[in-house]
Amino acid sequence: MQHALSAKKLNVYYGEKHAVHDVSLDFAEKQVTALIGPSGCGKSTFLRSLNRMNDLIPSCRVTGDIMMKEHNINDRETDVVALRKKIGMVFQRPNPFHKSIYENIAFGPRYHGMKKKADLDNLVEQSLRKAALWDETKDRLHKSAFALSGGQQQRLCIARSVALRPDIILMDEPSSALDPISTSRIEELITELKEEFCIVIVTHNMHQAARISDKTAFFLSGRVVEYDETDKLFLDPSQKETSDYISGRFG
Amino acid sequence: MSARTVDKIATGIIMAVAGFIVLILLGLLGYILIRGVGHISWHFLTSAPESIRAGGGIGPQLFNSVFLLVLTLIITVPLGIGAGIYMSEYAKPNRMTSFIRLVVEVLSSFPSIIVGLFGLLILVNKFGFGFSLFSGALALTIFNLPLMVRITEQGLRGVPLQQKEASFALGISKWKTIRSVLLPIATPVILSGTILAAGRIFGEAAALLFTAGMSSPRLDFTDWNPFDARSPLNPFRPAETLAVHIWKINSEGLAPDATQIAAGASAVLIIMVLVFNLGARALGRYMHNKFTAAK
Predict the structure, then answer these.
(1) Which of B88, B170, B295 best tests the A interface by mutation, with the highest count of A CBs <10 A?
(2) Which CATH number does the domain housing residue A235 bear?
(3) Domain boundaries, position A70
(4) What is the ipTM of this complex?
(5) Which residues of A224-241 are buried (b: 16+ CB within 10 A; e: fewer)?
(6) What is d(CA B259, CA B254) in angstroms, rounded to the nearest whole number?
(7) Which residues in A lie closer than 8 A to residue B164 (C-beta atoms)?
(8) What is the tens place of the pLDDT at every residue in A99-157?
């Protein structure tokens, strides 16, 4: 199977704190990979290294390789602007721009060179349809995105990522701030999006990981304890820590 | 004494102090307005001052104040916003940055009469700008620039980090993120801060005595060529502002109605500054609602 992205011996430090230890993981195309583990285990930190989002934190240092085809993302020379166009990201809290629904989606593609209004109109519709948001928003595309509910805002953020046609979408606990109904809509959406994209999702909800992912990695204290097919990891884990965690003995 | 009584007494004292401050303000405003408002008329606001006879106005002074404000803002707004963007988005937290911040703070707390004398020596004499609006605007820049830097920096820092992350995650460059995501959100803060700072400039006198000068040439309000000596728009002419005029007329006014003119001019000045303050609040609130609330 073709890997969309592979991390090799990745280490992340915040100042003196060693947050991620020697993590090597491969992410397959058109699959959902879930990263689970207790709070502070380094799963979000690891995820944010994959699109160099940790560059924003001055004290943060990342060593190791992140390969996307033949290209090493973690190389100094990498153009992070071009990189982040290929690897989209959805955050824990919905963070639409203070702009209209239409502008939230058109902003990225327009910056990356799509200037024609007809093309943009088309793309906005397509992206909103993919995020199952078109019917709810088609009559108010030019109204503020802040008029949407939390769940709708999060789907708008997913649509915004999808509009750039990335190869990979990273999701950092995308439904943890949402109610159960919105959560299940986001989960349905993820299952549909995996037809096209490689999705890596951090979640603290084990049921969510079990429902939507193909593979799961269990993080503990900055290390990957176990990485396997989701069914295997949940039904027949090979490590004692994994079975303790999924059976709710800690975390 | 029981804890409840102590609590009541403390509350009472704090309320009294707050009430006292409000009283001082109301008393001051009331005194100035009651003394001056009666003298304000269309004629007073538009006609030229008289040096010996009664019946002079403050037309040119009012115009000078507004024009000087505009000139100062033309200089300080681009510089201040640029430096503010640098301080909030580009400067790394190191010694150099804290040194710059210290310099900015010191600059804004300079005594204004010192700035005025500095302006006289350097701008008026050394650089040969003479007593002019331009010298005055540069002197005012010394107070106003630090304020603009701080306002912009605070405005940008107030933008939630999530907005920046959202933009970066779409592969948007830093500059484009600042321009299209951060600045629009910070604009209400920057704009209302600018207007507040403008109110301060409007009332400034000491720094202008020796830079913009204490006289106004006979202006021809039909001549809008900024290069003519008599044109009101010429930035290189001397210009007495309203605040300077109040000071001058109080200390050496010869007209028989000098006291009334000073009172009227003071009322006009206070009203203008109040308008700036209230306007800044209203505009800030309006823009905040417009940008954040559901439409």
Answers:
(1) B170
(2) 3.40.50.300
(3) 3-246
(4) 0.89
(5) bbbbbebeebbeebeeeb
(6) 10
(7) 56
(8) 899 999 999 999 998 889 999 999 999 899 888 889 888 899 998 898 899 889 999 99
